[in-house]
Design a protein that fits this description.
By secondary structure, the chain is of the alpha/beta class. The chain has 16 helices and 26 strands. The structure holds ligand UAG and adenosine-5'-triphosphate. Keywords: ATP-binding, Cell cycle, Cell division, Cell shape, Cell wall biogenesis/degradation, Cytoplasm, Ligase, Magnesium, Nucleotide-binding, Peptidoglycan synthesis.
Length: 496
């Protein structure tokens, strides 16, 4: 990995205090100087200001000693520390982003940042954007829940949208590497938890909104409101908005920044796609926009990728990027890891790994999978623990409505009882009565079962985890990659 944030000029603590405004109170002399900021004691570097935040499980102040051991020189929190000079503010989480941006030289001001939000398609759209930017000759970086990639290397992502201090460090590193545009995912958690405060977006992109994350946001209106925060004139210069659902239309009607809309259903959009052909080799469609009509041939699979490509082209159009080069880049993208990724070990049926984990994704993808076969669609499915329990039954119901065989198994239960998760999904799937429903707790066995049941011409899809490399059972975590497991299962079945 080579995305280290280079050291920054020291900033006196008194200057930090001044930046935070009149409500901030300093406990200490203010003689110290800080060279960076971190909100995780484990990631503190010598010279850092440690932002100790109240969280869901802990208060960061509990980790002050560890921050000191790593070289923290001062703290930002909602109460003073006995260990470090502290600047106290009422809501330190709100303060971190803008302060980190200032300490790292306002990196987003020097970058064209494409922020992608929405329930589904953020990662895919960010990959398409990066490919389009690079195709147009623009040095691009990418921040997604899979990896963070600049011009000089990449590293695995910890979450979809990095915490505020890590985000500003990454943007500063990108800037120093010569990156000039960044495609990044902006999750609703990221917006609600102020991770992107202090970041200026050249364009905010809205893909779509469907039920998800209601454990955190409580209802769809709050979920939408979190997403809509990205589109305020204080955060973004322009917007690209998908209007194929009610929420996108609502957003398009209310944003005050210059915007273009896109759609794969409505000619009323500024940029729209039609004549979609999605088969097992790729996806083509006609794109109609301000500069005319062009045919786009994606190597990515599934009609949903037309929506994501429209999102990317619309955002690139809004930013005035050369579209010929950008479209060539988009057409060259061969896969997004774990997003309808084909697994081919020479078997006589189609096999995919996908990340669908909500009914919005299921409803968009199953029709495509169905179109690929005259035989059966077999899905391996589960529900992730510690997430909205209200989404489990709909996942089971929709899978059973749209597939022929549903193999229910474990995803990552985290601290929840795996059997309860399986029962919720399988119970709902069984009530549909049209699909065969099996429960196979161990994921590798479930995948092998699906493969064994596949006849020539069928479609097998292992859903829900995409490219995740670890299955998390709370106390036990084990390496598990669905793509490897599916490939191995296919090979084993061929030998048998
Ligand atoms: C809601 C949320 O984002 N929570 C994350 C967050 O929790 P938190 O801020 O409440 O932190 P906490 O664990 O209570 O700890 C409090 C403070 O102590 C600090 N700390 C904690 C432990 C330690 O050893 N040292 C230390 O400094 C933490 O950095 C934090 O500032 O910080 C924790 C550790 O730093 C994360 O483990 C935790 O992720 C939770 C488990 C999580 O699952 N987050 C998911 C839901 C998430 O954010 N997902 C979205 C994408 C969703 C999607 O699009 O599908 C994302 O953007 O990734
Ligand atoms: N435009 C779309 N419309 C509906 N479903 C989609 C769309 N794009 C992707 N999907 C589905 O959502 C899954 C996740 O896709 P992707 O990772 O691109 O989205 P995401 O918004 O980043 O999701 P997450 O935040 O969960 O990573 C895909 O595997 C696919 O099943």
């Amino acid at each position: 990995m080579s995305i280290d944030c280079p050291s920054r000029p020291p900033t006196p603590l008194r200057e930090v205090l001044r930046r935070l405004g009149g409500a901030a109170v300093l406990f200490g002399t203010g003689e110290e100087v800080v060279t960076g900021i971190s909100q995780d004691s484990r990631l503190v570097r010598p010279g850092d200001l440690y932002a100790a935040l109240p969280g869901q499980r802990w208060h960061g102040a509990a980790f002050a000693a560890e921050a000191v051991s790593h070289g923290a020189v001062a703290m930002l929190s909602d109460h003073p520390s006995e260990l470090l000079p502290t600047i106290v503010v009422d809501d330190p989480r709100c303060a971190v982003g803008p302060l980190a941006s200032a300490l790292y030289g306002n990196p987003s001001g020097a970058l064209d940042v494409y922020g992608v939000t929405g329930t589904n398609g953020k990662t895919s759209t960010a990959y398409l954007l990066e490919a389009g930017l690079r195709g147009a000759g623009i040095a691009a970086g990418r921040i997604t829940g899979i990896t963070v990639r600049g011009c000089c290397g990449s590293r695995d992502a910890v979450r979809t949208t990095p915490e505020a201090s890590e985000l500003q460090q990454t943007l500063a590193a990108f800037k120093d590497q010569g990156v000039s545009a960044v495609a990044m995912e902006v999750s609703s958690h990221g917006l609600a938890l102020h991770r992107v405060d202090g970041t200026s977006f050249g364009v905010a992109v809205f893909t779509n909104l469907a039920r998800d994350h209601l454990d955190f946001h409580k209802d769809m209106d709050s979920y939408f409101a979190a997403k809509a925060r990205l589109f305020s004139a204080e955060r973004c210069a322009t917007a690209a908005i998908g209007i194929d659902d009610e929420f996108g239309r609502r957003l398009a009607a209310t944003v005050s920044v210059p915007r273009l809309t896109f759609s794969s259903k409505s000619v009323a959009a500024d940029i729209y796609g039609d004549d979609v052909h999605a088969d097992e080799g790729g996806t083509s469609f006609r794109l109609h926009g301000p500069s005319g009509t062009t045919t786009i041939r994606l190597r990515l699979l599934g009609a949903h990728q037309v929506d994501n490509a429209l999102a990317a082209v619309t955002a690139l159009t809004v930013r005035g990027v050369d579209l010929d080069g950008a479209i060539a880049g988009i057409e060259g993208l061969d896969t997004v890891p774990g997003r309808l990724e084909a697994i081919d070990a020479g078997q006589p049926f189609l096999a995919f790994v996908d990340y669908m984990h909500n009914t919005g994704g299921q409803r968009r993808l199953f029709p495509y999978l169905r179109s690929l076969t005259r035989g059966k669609v077999i899905v391996v499915i589960g529900a992730t623990g510690n997430r909205d329990p209200g989404k489990r039954a709909p996942l089971g119901t929709t899978a059973a409505e749209l597939a022929d065989i549903v193999v229910v198994t474990d995803e990552s239960p985290f601290s929840e009882d795996a059997e309860v998760l399986r029962d919720d999904v399988a119970g709902a799937a069984r009530r549909v009565k049209t699909a065969e429903v099996l429960v196979v707790p161990e994921r590798g066995e479930a995948i092998a079962t699906a493969v064994t049941l596949a006849a020539p011409g069928d479609v097998v899809v292992v859903a829900g985890r995409g490219s995740d490399a670890v299955q998390d059972f709370g106390r036990v975590r084990r390496p598990f990659d669905d793509r490897v497991a599916l490939y191995d299962a296919v090979l084993r079945s061929a030998r048998a």
